[in-house]
Amino acid sequence: MLKVLIAEDDTELRELFCHVLQRNGYTVRGVSNGLEALSAMEKDFFDLIITDIMMPEMDGYELVQTIRDTGNTTPVLMITAKDAFDDMRQGFLSGTDDYMVKPVNVNEMVLRVSALLRRAQMINDRRQVIGDTELLLDSLTVHTPEESLVLPQKEFMLLYKMVSYPGRIFTRNQLMDEIWGYDNESDTHTVEVHIGRLRERFRESKDFKIVTMRGVGYKVVKL
C-alpha cells in the first residue's frame, strides 16, 4: 500500500486529509511541522509528501529544500493559504512538484496525489507521457502521432526533465547544473540555445509547449 506523509500544523485539517486519503486506499502518517516530517522520513519510506508552508519549527519551503538537497526525489504536493505568484514560484523553485491553495477541495487533492504518484512511476520506468507524446529515456526518442524523433542527448534530457514536472518552473542555473553538470564551464546561454531548438522542433505540438518565465526560467505546459 502506498504511503503518504502529511506535514500540517492545523490538527483538524491534518486529520481530514489523513481520513480522506486513508479512505482512498493510502497508508497515511501525519506530523505537525517540517522537523517532525524529516524525523519520520528517517524511520520510514514514503511515496509522497503533502506539506503546508506556514508551520512552526521548520516551514514547508525549508522542508522541501532540505529533502531535495539530499537528493531525495519523493513527489511533494504543497498546500498553503498563500496564493500570490511569488509564493507559488518559491514553492516550485524549492523543489515542490504541485501546489494547491486553501481552502482545499479534498477530491481534487486525491486526484493530484494519484497523478503525482503515476508520474513518479513513469520516471522509474524511464519514460514520460504528455498527451499523445511519449519520451523514452533509454533511446532518447520522442514519439508523437506524426513521427518519432531521436534527439541529441542534451536536448532530450532538457525536455525529459521539464515534461516530468509539467507546470514546474526550472531556472536556467538549475537546468545547467542538472543537465550539463556542476563543473561544466558553459554558461546559461547554452540552455537558451537548446530551449530554442526544442521549441522549433515541437512548435506544432498539440500536447505541450515550452513557456519562458521572464527573469526566472522555463516550464513545460500541457495543452
Regarding quaternary structure, what we see is: single chain
Indicate the proportion of strand residues.
15-25%
Continuous helix count? 8
Rg, rounded, reads 18 Å
Distance between the termini: 32 Å
Helix fraction by DSSP (H/I, runs of at least 4): 40-55%
State the major sheet: 5 strands, parallel
The sequence of SSEs as H and E is EHEHEHEHEHEEEEHEHHEE
- Name the strands of the widest sheet in spatial order: 2-1-3-4-5
Tell me the overall shape. Answer: globular
Q: Quickly give the structural class.
A: alpha/beta
Residue runs with pLDDT of under 50 for 5 or more positions? none
Q: In total, how many beta strands?
A: 12
| Overall average pLDDT | 89
Structure description:
It contains 8 helices and 12 strands. With 223 residues, the protein is an alpha/beta fold. The strands form 3 sheets. Strands 2-1-3-4-5 form a 5-stranded parallel sheet, sandwiched between helices. Strands 6-7-8-9 form a 4-stranded antiparallel sheet. A 3-stranded antiparallel sheet has the order 10-12-11. α4 (85-94) links the parallel β4 (76-80) and β5. α2 (34-43) packs parallel to α3 and α6 packs across α8. The chain is globular, with a radius of gyration of 18 Å. The mean pLDDT is 89.
